[in-house]
């Protein structure tokens, strides 16, 4: 029983070694495929970030309008922070796209 188990294990080990020898390659095709896959995500991701920036801008505009209507003296600070968030999203998406494409 022990000899049979040993033969099976040695055979399995031999097959694994043979398979790993045939699976060797330079990896260039895999790297190229991964690069193409990652770069294909940039256009939809950029459009999604622009849409998020538009929603953030609308929400910020409503918040600033509410503060302005209520007479809050902190309106300019709130407007600057919401406007800065929108500008950051748009600039970050554009810069990332220009770096990687």
Automatic annotation (TrEMBL):
InterPro entries: DUF4134. The keyword Lyase does not apply. It comes from the Bacteria. Residues 1-23 form the signal peptide. The keyword NADP does not apply. Keywords: Membrane, Signal, Transmembrane, Transmembrane helix. It holds the Pfam family DUF4134. The chain crosses the membrane at residues 47-66, 78-100. This is Conjugal transfer protein. It comes from Chryseobacterium profundimaris.
């Amino acid at each position: 029983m022990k000899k049979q188990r040993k033969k099976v294990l040695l055979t399995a080990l031999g097959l694994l070694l043979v398979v790993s020898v045939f699976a060797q390659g330079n990896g260039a095709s895999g790297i190229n495929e991964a690069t193409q896959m990652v770069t294909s995500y940039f256009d939809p991701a950029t459009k999604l970030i622009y849409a998020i920036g538009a929603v953030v801008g609308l929400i910020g505009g409503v918040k600033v309008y509410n503060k302005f209507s209520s007479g809050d003296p902190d309106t300019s600070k709130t407007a600057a922070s919401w406007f800065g968030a929108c500008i950051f999203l748009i600039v970050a998406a554009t810069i990332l796209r220009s770096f990687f494409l």
